[in-house]
């Protein structure tokens, strides 16, 4: 780990976010994962199932925290969010809770479940290309046209603090934790969880997990700065950002001990194990940490407990059947992004 001059989220900011979310976000449990990963001699393996969060993923934590910190007059103008899916649903839900309008800009390749979720929660949907830049460009146009406020998906300290409340809960509920695995997309969740874990339990190891088709944190750590990948692809559509955010990367450098990449082939077996044995529906992005453990890319802690953060479960029935190879699946192709 290295130090950085970029200001980092503080424990006070994390606790303030947790206070704002009290009574709004679900405090997701820690569930023993003995049925999907055999227990080790030194400690058990647990999962933190953020698919049980309102909106089906961790994203409400950051979105609601961001809206709660806006001045009421600014919030009343409405909000705009670029998103591949889960952030869009979270912003739609947060906006509905505050009674303000929301527009979300999603890719033309968005999964039906994620688009339907945002629509069901009251957001106006716009589709713009297939890349992160396409979505952000259209979102900024909407902000200029309407005066609405942009809700960034990950590259903002308030978003990081909100997502980090999952890490606060984790350590408070399991003080014996010695290893935490967390998914890496644009970096908001991994940055927030790593910050919370290290500030509360400095000796706990934090490992980021990203898809082999989008190794943006691996590349960034090798070069010492965020790197634009140009193109990403894979099943884990929620983790296909082409670049780690600047603010998240600063937190990664300070608090993340290692990063590993997982091949697509490892994701369906992990999803199936969660479904069959724990009755948890995970999208590919949500199952990636468990896949890393099951594939032996990371060894469970020998001197304490291990926790896999499961980031979400927003996948529709046809998509789930397709990924798992069921005969009544939709046959939809793997998602891609740029």
Automatic annotation (TrEMBL):
CDD domains hit by this protein: Thr-dehyd
Keyword rRNA processing: no
SUPFAM superfamilies given in the database record: Tryptophan synthase beta subunit-like PLP-dependent enzymes (SSF53686)
GO MF term set: L-serine ammonia-lyase activity; pyridoxal phosphate binding; threonine deaminase activity
tRNA processing as UniProt keyword: no
Cofactor entry: pyridoxal 5'-phosphate
Any one GO BP annotation for this protein: isoleucine biosynthetic process
Keywords recorded for this protein, A-Z: Lyase, Pyridoxal phosphate
Superkingdom: Bacteria
Record-annotated Tryptophan synthase beta chain-like PALP domain positions: 26-312
InterPro entries assigned: Ser/Thr_Dehydratase (IPR050147), Ser/Thr_deHydtase_PyrdxlP-BS (IPR000634), TrpB-like_PALP (IPR001926), TrpB-like_PALP_sf (IPR036052)
Family to which this protein belongs: Belongs to the serine/threonine dehydratase family.
Name of the featured protein: Serine/threonine dehydratase
């Amino acid at each position: 780990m290295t130090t950085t001059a970029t200001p980092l989220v503080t424990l006070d900011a994390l606790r303030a976010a947790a206070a704002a979310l009290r009574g709004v976000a679900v405090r997701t449990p820690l569930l023993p994962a003995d049925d999907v990963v055999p227990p080790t001699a030194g400690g058990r393996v647990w999962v933190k199932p953020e698919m049980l969060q309102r909106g089906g993923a961790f994203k409400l934590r950051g979105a609601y925290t961001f809206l709660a910190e806006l001045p009421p007059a600014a919030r009343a103008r409405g909000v705009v969010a670029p998103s591949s899916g889960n952030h869009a649903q979270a912003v739609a839900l947060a906006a509905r809770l505050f009674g303000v309008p929301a527009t979300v800009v999603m890719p033309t390749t968005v999964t039906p479940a994620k688009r339907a979720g945002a629509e069901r929660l009251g957001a106006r949907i716009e589709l713009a290309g297939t890349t992160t830049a396409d979505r952000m460009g259209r979102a900024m146009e909407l902000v200029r046209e309407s005066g609405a406020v942009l809700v960034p998906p990950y590259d903002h300290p308030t978003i990081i603090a909100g997502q980090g409340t999952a890490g606060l809960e984790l350590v408070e509920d399991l003080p014996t934790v010695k290893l935490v695995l967390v998914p890496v997309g644009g970096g908001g969740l991994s940055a927030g969880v790593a910050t919370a874990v290290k500030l509360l339990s400095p000796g706990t190891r934090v490992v980021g997990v990203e898809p082999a088709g989008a190794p943006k944190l691996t590349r960034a750590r090798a070069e010492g700065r965020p790197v634009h990948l140009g193109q990403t692809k894979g099943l884990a559509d929620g983790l296909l950002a082409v670049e780690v955010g600047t603010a998240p990367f600063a937190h990664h450098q300070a608090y993340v001990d290692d990063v590993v990449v997982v091949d697509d082939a490892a994701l369906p077996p992990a999803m199936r194990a969660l479904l069959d044995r724990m009755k948890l529906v995970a999208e590919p992005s949500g199952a990636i940490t468990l896949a890393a453990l099951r594939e032996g890319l990371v060894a469970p802690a020998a001197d304490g407990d291990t926790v896999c953060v499961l980031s979400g479960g927003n996948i529709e029935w046809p998509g789930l059947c397709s990924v798992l190879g069921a005969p009544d699946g939709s046959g939809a192709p793997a998602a891609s992004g740029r």
